[in-house]
C-alpha cells in the first residue's frame, strides 16, 4: 500500500477508516464546544457585571489577559497536575482561554449601547432587568456572538494539543505511530519512544 | 446591597451548576464521568490495537463505559497514570521492561522467574494485577532476509558466528550501551562480535536489511514489516534477550469495583500469537488501517471470543 500513489492512498485510507476519523472529529468538536459553552455561561454574566460596574472592568479584563499570556502547552501541564490525564483537563484549558474573548466582547458590546437609548428606556419606566433584557442585550448581541465565535476558533486550536494528555481528538491521526509512514512522519518521531 | 446579594447568588448557582455538570460527565464525551473504565495506551501501533481491543471487549460483554487515554509517551508514563489513579487499565505492559525500569532490578534471563517477580511485586507494591500474557512477546530479535538465511544456513543466532566478523549489522541506538541486555553482554554470552555495527533509528532497520544495505539487523519481533519484507527471525538459542511478555495490567481497585472485568480480559489470554500480532501491526503500519478498525475487524472475525475464557 505504501507504494501506491498519494491519491490512491488517500482514498484507501478514508474508505477503511472513515468512521473512525469521523468519531475523532466529533470528539474534537465536542471538547471545544463544551469548553466554550462553559466559558459563555460564566463569561457573559461577568461581562454584564463589569459593564455595569466599570471600576471593576480593568481588574477583571486584566486577569483574563494574564490567563491568555500563558502558553497553552504550559497551561495544559499545570491543569494536568490537578485533574490528571484525560478529557476534563482539556475542557478546563479551553474554558480558561475562551474566557477573555467572551468577557471582553460582552463588556464592549454593553458599553457601546447608546446612552440615549438607555435613557429613553429608563424614561419609559423599565426596571433594571427589563432594560438589560429588552435594550442592552439585543443591541450588544452581535458583538457578544463575535466574541463567542472568536473563542471557538481559539478552542479548536487548543483542543489539538489535548491529544498529548490522552484526550483524543483529530490530531491523534497525525501524532500516533501508524500514520508515520505517510503524513505522520512529518510531525512526530514516534519510533524513538518504542518500548 | 440587595443587588450585590443577587449577583452573589447567581454566581454561586453558576459554580454549583458547572461542578454538577462536570461531575456527571459531558454527554457524548466518554471519559468525563467518574464511573468510566479508563484504558491507558502508549503511542505505538501495538499498544493502540490492544487498547481498542480491550475497549471493544468490555463494551461488548458488559454495560461499562470505557474511554482510552491514548498516545502516552512511554511505559513509565502509562504506569504512573495507573499509580495515580488516572487510569484503570494499561493496555500492554512488557514483563522485561517493567522488571528493569519500574522495579529497577537486574534483567532476568529466566522468563518464568521474571514474570513471577514482576507479578508479585506489582501486586504487593502498587496494588495492580498482572494478567497472563496475551500470547505474544515483544523483544529484540536478529533478522535476515530469507535469501541470506538459505545461503549461510542461518537458523539460530549462534549460526552467525562463522560469518559475523565480515558482517555489517544495523542495530537500535539504545541497544549499543544498554546494561544487562546490551551489546557488551551479547558479546560475552554468544562469544563473537560483528565486523561493523551501525546504530540507527529503530524504524529504519527493517528497510535497511530488506534493501540489502545490511547483512543482519536487530529489530523488534512484533513489527509488521517483518511480514511485509518476509524477513527471517533468528532464534535466540542462548536466551540472551529478556522476555518482554505482553500482558494487560489492571489496578486492584478497578477489579474490586467491577469484578466482571476479570473474566472479560481473561478471554484474550493467549489468543494473540506473535504471528497474529505481526499481522495486525502490518495492517496498521503498511495498509493504512487505523488501530481502532484493525482491532474491531479482528474481534468480529473471532466473534469476540464468545464461549472461551473462564
UniProtKB/TrEMBL annotation, chain A:
<dbReference type="GO" id="GO:0055085">
    <property type="term" value="P:transmembrane transport"/>
</dbReference>
<dbReference type="InterPro" id="IPR035906">
    <property type="entry name" value="MetI-like_sf"/>
</dbReference>
<dbReference type="InterPro" id="IPR051204">
    <property type="entry name" value="ABC_transp_perm/SBD"/>
</dbReference>
<feature type="transmembrane region" description="Helical">
    <location>
        <begin position="85"/>
        <end position="103"/>
    </location>
</feature>
<feature type="transmembrane region" description="Helical">
    <location>
        <begin position="151"/>
        <end position="173"/>
    </location>
</feature>
<keyword id="KW-0813">Transport</keyword>
<dbReference type="GO" id="GO:0031460">
    <property type="term" value="P:glycine betaine transport"/>
</dbReference>
<protein>
    <submittedName>
        <fullName>Osmotically activated L-carnitine/choline ABC transporter, permease protein OpuCD</fullName>
    </submittedName>
</protein>
<keyword id="KW-1133">Transmembrane helix</keyword>
<keyword id="KW-0472">Membrane</keyword>
<comment type="similarity">
    <text>Belongs to the binding-protein-dependent transport system permease family.</text>
</comment>
<feature type="domain" description="ABC transmembrane type-1">
    <location>
        <begin position="25"/>
        <end position="195"/>
    </location>
</feature>
<feature type="transmembrane region" description="Helical">
    <location>
        <begin position="29"/>
        <end position="51"/>
    </location>
</feature>
<keyword id="KW-0812">Transmembrane</keyword>
<dbReference type="InterPro" id="IPR000515">
    <property type="entry name" value="MetI-like"/>
</dbReference>
<dbReference type="Pfam" id="PF00528">
    <property type="entry name" value="BPD_transp_1"/>
</dbReference>
<dbReference type="GO" id="GO:0005886">
    <property type="term" value="C:plasma membrane"/>
</dbReference>
From TrEMBL, chain B:
<dbReference type="InterPro" id="IPR007210">
    <property type="entry name" value="ABC_Gly_betaine_transp_sub-bd"/>
</dbReference>
<dbReference type="GO" id="GO:0022857">
    <property type="term" value="F:transmembrane transporter activity"/>
</dbReference>
<feature type="domain" description="ABC-type glycine betaine transport system substrate-binding">
    <location>
        <begin position="35"/>
        <end position="301"/>
    </location>
</feature>
<protein>
    <submittedName>
        <fullName>Glycine betaine carnitine choline ABC superfamily ATP binding cassette transporter</fullName>
    </submittedName>
</protein>
<dbReference type="GO" id="GO:0043190">
    <property type="term" value="C:ATP-binding cassette (ABC) transporter complex"/>
</dbReference>
<dbReference type="Pfam" id="PF04069">
    <property type="entry name" value="OpuAC"/>
</dbReference>
Amino acid at each position: 500500500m505504501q507504494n501506491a500513489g498519494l491519491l490512491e492512498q488517500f482514498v484507501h485510507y478514508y474508505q477503511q477508516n472513515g468512521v473512525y476519523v469521523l468519531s475523532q472529529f466529533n470528539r474534537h468538536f465536542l471538547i471545544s464546544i463544551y469548553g466554550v459553552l462553559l466559558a459563555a455561561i460564566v463569561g457573559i454574566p461577568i461581562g454584564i457585571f463589569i459593564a455595569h460596574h466599570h471600576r471593576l472592568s480593568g481588574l477583571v479584563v486584566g486577569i483574563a489577559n494574564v490567563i491568555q499570556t500563558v502558553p497553552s502547552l504550559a497551561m495544559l501541564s499545570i491543569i494536568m497536575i490537578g485533574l490528571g490525564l484525560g478529557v476534563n483537563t482539556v475542557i478546563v484549558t479551553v474554558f480558561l482561554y475562551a474566557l477573555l474573548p467572551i468577557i471582553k466582547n460582552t463588556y464592549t458590546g454593553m458599553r457601546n449601547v447608546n446612552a440615549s437609548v438607555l435613557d429613553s428606556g429608563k424614561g419609559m419606566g423599565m426596571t433594571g432587568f427589563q432594560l438589560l433584557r429588552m435594550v442592552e442585550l439585543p443591541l450588544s448581541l452581535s458583538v457578544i456572538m463575535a466574541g463567542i465565535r472568536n473563542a471557538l476558533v481559539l478552542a479548536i486550536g487548543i483542543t489539538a494539543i489535548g491529544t498529548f494528555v490522552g484526550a483524543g481528538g483529530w490530531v491523534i491521526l497525525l501524532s500516533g505511530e501508524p500514520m508515520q509512514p505517510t503524513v505522520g512522519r512529518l510531525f512526530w518521531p514516534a519510533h524513538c519512544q518504542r518500548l | 446591597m440587595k443587588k450585590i446579594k443577587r449577583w452573589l447568588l447567581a454566581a454561586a448557582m453558576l459554580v454549583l451548576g458547572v461542578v454538577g455538570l462536570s461531575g456527571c460527565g459531558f454527554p457524548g464525551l466518554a471519559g468525563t464521568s467518574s464511573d468510566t473504565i479508563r484504558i491507558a495506551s502508549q503511542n505505538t501501533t501495538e499498544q493502540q490495537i490492544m487498547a481498542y481491543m480491550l475497549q471493544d471487549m468490555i463494551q461488548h460483554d458488559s454495560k461499562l463505559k470505557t474511554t482510552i487515554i491514548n498516545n502516552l509517551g512511554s511505559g513509565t508514563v502509562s504506569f504512573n497514570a495507573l499509580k495515580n489513579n488516572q487510569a484503570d487499565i494499561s493496555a500492554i505492559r512488557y514483563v522485561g521492561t517493567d522488571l528493569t525500569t519500574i522495579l529497577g532490578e537486574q534483567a532476568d534471563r529466566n522468563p518464568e522467574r521474571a514474570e513471577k517477580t514482576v507479578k508479585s511485586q506489582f501486586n504487593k507494591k502498587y496494588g495492580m494485577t498482572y494478567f497472563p500474557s496475551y500470547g505474544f512477546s515483544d523483544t529484540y530479535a536478529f533478522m535476515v532476509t530469507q535469501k541470506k538465511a538459505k545461503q549461510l544456513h542461518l537458523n539460530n543466532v549462534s549460526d552467525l558466528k562463522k560469518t559475523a566478523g565480515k558482517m555489517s549489522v544495523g542495530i537500535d541506538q539504545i541497544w549499543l550501551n544498554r546494561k544487562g541486555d546490551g551489546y557488551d553482554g551479547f558479546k560475552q554470552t554468544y562469544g563473537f562480535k560483528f565486523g561493523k555495527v551501525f546504530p540507527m533509528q529503530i524504524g529504519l532497520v527493517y528497510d535497511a536489511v530488506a534493501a540489502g544495505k545490511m547483512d543482519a539487523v536487530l529489530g523488534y519481533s512484533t513489527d509488521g514489516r517483518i511480514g511485509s519484507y518476509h524477513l527471517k527471525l533468528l532464534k535466540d538459542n542462548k536466551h540472551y534477550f529478556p522476555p518482554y511478555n505482553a500482558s494487560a495490567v489492571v489496578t486492584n481497585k478497578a477489579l474490586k469495583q467491577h469484578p466482571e472485568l476479570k473474566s472479560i480480559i481473561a478471554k484474550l489470554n493467549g489468543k494473540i500469537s506473535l504471528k497474529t500480532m505481526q499481522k495486525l501491526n502490518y495492517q496498521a503500519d503498511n495498509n493504512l488501517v487505523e488501530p481502532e478498525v484493525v482491532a474491531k475487524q479482528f474481534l468480529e472475525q473471532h466473534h469476540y471470543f464468545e464461549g472461551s475464557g473462564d
